[in-house]
Specification:
- By secondary structure, the protein is an all-alpha fold.
- Helices cover about 55% and strands about 0% of the residues.
C-alpha cells in the first residue's frame, strides 16, 4: 500500500503555503487567517496554523533567501 499523501498532512501543501503566506504577508493573527480560510470552506484551527508556522516557516524563509530577486514595475519619470 502506498501513501497517497507523502507529506502526511490533512491539507495539501498549497493550502498550508497559502495560510502561511497570509499570516506572514499581512498583519493578521492566526485567528484572522483561520476566519479567512473558513470563508473559503477550509476549516482549520488556529492551533494547527501555529503548528504549521513552527514547522514550515523556517523552510519558507530558506526558499525565499535563495530565490532570485524579481523586478517590479518600472518607474517612469515624468
Amino acid at each position: 500500500m502506498t501513501d497517497r499523501k507523502p507529506y502526511r498532512h490533512r491539507f495539501p501543501l498549497s493550502i498550508i503555503g497559502h495560510a502561511l503566506w497570509l499570516y506572514h504577508r499581512f498583519p493578521l493573527s492566526e485567528r484572522d487567517v483561520q476566519e479567512l480560510l473558513h470563508q473559503h470552506g477550509i476549516v482549520v484551527s488556529h492551533e494547527t496554523l501555529r503548528q504549521w508556522n513552527i514547522k514550515f516557516a523556517p523552510l519558507l524563509t530558506e526558499v525565499l533567501r535563495h530565490r532570485e530577486p524579481q523586478q517590479g514595475f518600472p518607474v517612469v519619470p515624468r
